[in-house]
Amino acid sequence: MIARVLLGVGLVFLYLPLLVVMGYSFNASRLVTVWTGFSTQWYGELFADRQILRAAGISFIVAVISASLATVLGTAAGYALARFGPFRGRSIFAGSLAVPLVMPEVITGLALLLLFVAAQSAMPWLPGRGIGTLIVAHASLTTAYVAVIVQARVSGMARDFEDAAADLGARPATVFVHITLPLIAPALVAGWLLAFVLSLDDLVIASFVSGPQSTTLPMVVFSSVRLGVSPKINALATILIALTFLMLAASAALARKRSK
Amino acid sequence: MSTVIRVDGIAKSYGEVRAVDHVSLEVGANECLALLGPSGCGKTTLLRLMAGLETPDAGTIAIDGADMTRTPPYGRPVNMMFQSYALFPHMTVADNVAFGLKQDRLAPSEVEARTKEALAAVELEALGARKPHQLSGGQRQRVALARCIAKRPKALLLDEPMAALDKHLRERTQLELLALRRRLGISFVVVTHDQDEAMTMADRIAVMDKGRILQIDTPRALYERPATQGVARFFGDINLWPSGLVVRPERIALSRASGDMEGVVIDIIYRGTATTYLVQTAELVVRVLRQNTGGDDDAQKGDKVFLSWPADAARMLSA
Q1: How near does any CA of chain B get to the CA of A160, in Å?
Q2: For A70, A192, B2, B267, which has the most beta carbons within 10 A of its beta carbon?
Q3: Using one digit for the tens of pLDDT, what is the confidence trace for A28-67?
Q4: What is the crossing angle of helices A50-83 and A217-226, to 10°?
Q5: Which CATH number fits domain B239-316: 3.40.800.20, 2.60.120.10, 2.50.20.10, 2.40.50.140?
Q6: Global pTM?
Q7: What is the pLDDT of residues A102-158, one digit of tens each?
């Protein structure tokens, strides 16, 4: 009984704020705190706002490309950690890979900004800060998450499948492509989804490394909220919350799925 | 008898543990050799060394006359059947069998023909389109077998082939495997911890313990002329005197009239086909096994009896 009450308190603590936002996104009133009736007008206004639509497009492009990049790098790293045995520098590699998981985002963002500025002064032909730097920054953050998921999956998979393939005449590259990759595919999809969501939600790092023409959706939300909360933002938040939950649920389901 | 696999002074350690400790053996053409021993004795490691899945610290392995000590698994003309079978779960039965053939870059028609042939050899032609998880344990084992023999290896390496099968399926499968081997005419190396299985299947058995081979011989020779007490104990019951004298229970005759050694029956265990008598003698409790052929003059508990055995039944063995 006590456990159930505590669970209830915990859930309310976690989700009540989100539910309030979602509820008020259907409020007819312009005043955020006064409920006057049900309406979907703010969703209509949201989809008429070019600035928000443009930011959503940028966020989406950055999330797709950075998640894909992170999946390739993270898979390579996770596979190496799980299968290459105690190679020289393994613990340094594993440790440095995990740093982005615990590093404060402000530090990561600042470090990346300094790196990009320095890189551009050394190589002036590089494009300025924008979508490119956002992609690189987000991939460097999310690669660690993909690597952790892939490493867990590969470690949990018996080596027999890969051994059997080699025994049947397959060279290492063939084994990886035809046996390992299909068997860890759920982990790759789960890692990609997680990386996508992390990139889509990121505000801090994006604030450091984006350029004037590459404002992301969370940046638009944050700056407009500072000028006063518009119910439009509630509508946007509701959509983002729903999207994030869907993708995290899919990611968790896939990560848990075992190959039969 | 020509040699298919020649292992010479092979050694493999994991850290401080000597999994395989300078082992030498030969597998003859068309021979079935069993590697027998308790778990952790190094028999599976030895098998994986033959397959090329482990790299030896020392020694050489030659297959079909060619040195293959450093040859990767995909370059060796032997195939291994894994204890887990390791059927690729994302492929159909037919694709599993065809996988190894495709690696040899055979023509598609050839791949198809040999896949069919291999599945026919294990009587699974009808199940080619199934996925491994839709098969029974026995069927999975046969797919794993078909996947190996489709490659027409010089030798088949089997790691605990019966471990995942029900007990009643085991004996039948052992005999089927033997029949298949005779038909294909290839050598088998079978890893097992079950001495009955080793005796049923193997022409010769290598008894292993702690990474070494204790004795390698035919099943009959191992049973009748074991080299050590350990080997003797591994194959059935023994009576061991403090002096190192070893006599098997079924070689001892029990008589109420006369014999070489005197004792008292302290217990009788009836086992259907045979009866075990526990006889207290001066030095130890001797086990005597007697076939229940009927009409025996049965000794009773508490009876004074005499034991005797033919000279060839007694052996002096070191530990």
Answers
A1: 6
A2: A70
A3: 887 777 888 888 888 988 888 888 899 999 999 999 999 9
A4: 130
A5: 2.40.50.140
A6: 0.82
A7: 889 999 999 999 999 999 899 888 888 889 999 999 999 999 999 999 999 999 988
A170 contacts in chain B (CB < 8 Å): 74, 99-100, 103
Please indicate if any CB of chain A lies within 8 Å of the CB of B103: yes
Chain A residues inside the 8 Å CB shell of B158: none
At residue B204, φ and ψ (nearest 5 deg) are: -135, 150
Considering only CB atoms, A167 lies closest to which of B53, B90, B133, namely: B53
Strand partners for B7: B25, B61
Question: Could B89 and A259 be called an inter-chain contact, meaning their C-beta atoms sit closer than 8 Å?
Answer: yes
Superfamily of domain B3-224: P-loop containing nucleotide triphosphate hydrolases (3.40.50.300)
Give the separation between CA B97 and CA B147, rounded to whole angstroms: 4
DSSP letter string over A10-73?
HHHHHHHHHHHHHHHTTBSSSSTT----B--HHHHHHTT-HHHHHHHHHHHHHHHHHHHHHHHH
Quick check: A165 and B99 CB within 8 A?
Answer: yes
Domain ranges of chain B: 3-224, 239-316
Helix and strand totals (H; E) in chain A: 12, 0
Q: Determine, for residues B82 and A166 on separate chains, whether the beta-carbon distance falls below 8 Å.
A: no
CA A89 – CA A68 distance, rounded (Å): 26
Contacts B74 to A, Cβ<8 Å: 166-171
Specify the 3-state DSSP secondary structure of B212.
strand
The single-letter DSSP state of residue B124 is -
Contact A40, A234 (CB under 8 A): no
Helix axes B93-103, B108-121, angle to 10 degrees: 130
Cα–Cα distance, B157 to B76 (Å, whole number): 12
